[in-house]
Design a protein that fits this description.
By secondary structure, the protein is mainly alpha-helical. The chain has helices at 5-18, 25-30, 32-41, 47-58, 60-79. It binds zinc ion (ZN).
Length: 81
């Protein structure tokens, strides 16, 4: 199945209306690795990463992804001699 241009524009409008000026989950997950590294390194968050943090405070799904990612990163770090 493929969407028509009209259907796509309706969908885009819906997305824009439900999440004004906020990240969606895809954007959040795109930045997850960078956010986790910055978090672990204790570096200050840039604007984009602050938005990731805000999104995760409101989105248990992405928060869960982040925790899993963090565990994976720590696991890798533990294995390094
Ligand atoms: Zn999310």
């Amino acid at each position: 199945m493929s969407l028509t241009r009209k259907q796509i524009s309706i969908l885009m409008q819906l997305v824009a209306e439900t999440s004004p000026d906020k990240l969606d989950c895809t954007d959040c997950l795109d930045h997850l690795a960078e956010f986790a590294e910055t978090h672990l390194a204790g570096r200050p968050l840039c604007d984009a990463l602050s938005e990731v943090q805000t999104h995760m405070q409101n989105c248990p799904c992405c928060e869960h992804e982040f925790q899993s990612f963090l565990e994976a990163l720590k696991g890798i770090a533990d294995d390094t001699p």
